[in-house]
Design goal:
single chain, 439 residues, alpha/beta, eight-stranded mixed beta sheet, five-stranded mixed beta sheet, 13 helices, 15 strands, binds zinc ion, ATP-binding, Ub_act_enz_dom_a_sf, EC 6.2.1.64
């Protein structure tokens, strides 16, 4: 048994590494195995690298973040930074297990870092109670691997764009040393996914944007005439009865107003009784109105474990990383599936290909804006458009000064082949488009 004969690791800083401390990790790094990477050579240096050199950034200290920090710290990673802009809410405590009732109101990143540092000797988690957008590329460049445990697609896309902006190309050839692998985890109720992104080499977040469709709603005919679920009854009260009966005048429905929810709840029960449907509760009513998807601790645990494993595989080079997308679902039984998401040739984030916009010369700027926001592979949120006209930069559209949206291209001075630079919250860089007139 090879692992029993390896020498004890020298205590590097104050005797943190007691005898046998990393035996569980050494089994993977110091002996060969059938699942090891073909180029893998068992050695002791890999563990030293994990313990002393490898710098990991964890984005998010919530449901996934707590699990990620715990897993990484117990796997031997010690130089970990964590970024989170949130404070702890009492409703987090059932699954975000690094937090206690006394911590409510404090920044998640700071409490999580303190907990890990106190519990796991030698670990140096550095917290950042900030937004990811508060840091520039020099901050991100210091890390070997970045792991995301986010619940926001905009933040994911921004992070993805940041790592793509760090890539350097020489004569069109990607410099591999400029790649920082991004491991992304996501969960929603009983469903989750884990993926490995090598920016510039494998499919990025924006390459597969169609996988994140906008909120799916129940078909209106079901809500209006043939409800089957308690949710259908609640949607009936919310969408059809509220604007018709105007219980609070012209006020729009506020999910945080208990009187509003109470009204929808009462109407939903009446509707449910009519169709012999059970299960309408106040809590469900609030959940449907506020679009709450319950967070499930076990889903977070599985996805964070899958992500941490990928970090370990890439950092140690001992095993072949996931290629490249794992889906997990335990709504009914248990299901996992892995597939290779493919790069999109004209991805607006990673392809380096100018994006074409096809519009007739008679179109208005409004049509461009709608396209940028509604196209499934762009899904921008509040695009700002600038261009260069007669050698001068000109802002065509900003949401706060939206007087140009109904203006035709002709009056804006836009011609065929015009380059438009679009800035949006989904990316740290501007995206270049080329306006092609159709006839
Ligand atoms: Zn891409």
């Amino acid at each position: 048994n090879a692992d029993t004969v390896s020498p004890p690791i020298m205590a590097v800083d104050g005797g943190y590494d007691w005898d046998g401390r990393w035996n569980h990790v050494r089994k993977f790094l110091e002996r060969p195995g059938p699942f090891a990477h073909p180029d893998f050579e068992p050695c002791t240096e890999s563990l030293q690298f994990l313990l002393e050199m490898c710098k990991i950034l964890v984005i998010g200290a919530g449901g996934l973040g707590c699990e990620l920090l715990k897993n990484l710290a117990l796997s031997g990673f010690r130089l970990i930074h964590v970024v989170d802009m949130d404070t702890i809410d009492i409703s987090n405590l059932n699954r975000q297990f690094l937090f206690r009732p006394k911590d409510v109101g404090r920044p998640k990143a700071e409490v999580a870092a303190d907990f890990i540092n106190n519990r796991i000797p030698g670990c140096k988690v550095v917290p950042h109670y900030k937004k990811i957008q508060d840091f520039d590329e020099s901050f991100y460049r210091q890390f070997h691997i970045i792991v995301c445990g986010l619940d926001s697609i905009i933040a994911r896309r921004w992070m993805n764009g940041m790592l793509i902006s760090l890539l350097s190309y020489e004569d069109g050839v990607l410099d591999p040393s400029s790649i920082i692998p991004l491991i992304d985890g996501g969960t929603e109720g009983f469903k989750g996914n884990s993926r490995v992104i090598l920016p510039g080499m494998t499919a990025c977040i924006d390459c597969t944007l169609e996988l994140y469709p906008p909120q799916i709603n129940f078909p209106m005919c079901t809500i209006a005439s043939m409800p089957r679920l308690p949710e259908h009854c609640i949607e009936y009260a919310r969408i059809l009865l509220w604007p018709k009966e105007k219980p609070f005048g012209e006020t729009s429905l506020d999910g945080d107003n208990p009187e509003h929810i109470q009204w929808v709840f009462k109407k939903s029960i009446e509707r449910a009784a009519e169709f012999h449907i059970t299960g309408v509760t106040y809590r469900l009513t609030q959940g449907v109105v506020k679009r709450i998807i319950p967070a499930v601790a076990s889903t977070n645990a599985v996805i964070a474990a899958a992500c941490s494993l990928e970090v370990f595989k890439i950092a140690s080079s001992a095993y072949i990383p996931l290629n490249n997308y794992l889906v997990f679902n335990d709504v009914d039984g248990l299901y996992t599936y892995t597939f290779e998401a493919e790069r999109k040739e004209n991805c607006s984030a990673c392809s380096q290909v100018p994006q074409n916009l096809q519009f007739p010369p008679s179109a208005k700027l409004q049509e461009v804006l709608e396209y940028l926001m509604e196209n499934a592979s762009l899904q921008m949120k509040s695009p700002a458009i600038t261009t260069t006209l007669e050698g001068k930069n000109k802002t065509l559209y900003l949401q706060v000064f939206n007087f140009t949206e109904h203006t035709h291209f002709f009056y804006l001075g836009l011609s065929d082949g015009q380059e438009l630079a679009v800035a949006d919250v989904t990316t740290p860089q501007t995206v270049l488009f080329k306006l092609n007139f159709t006839t």
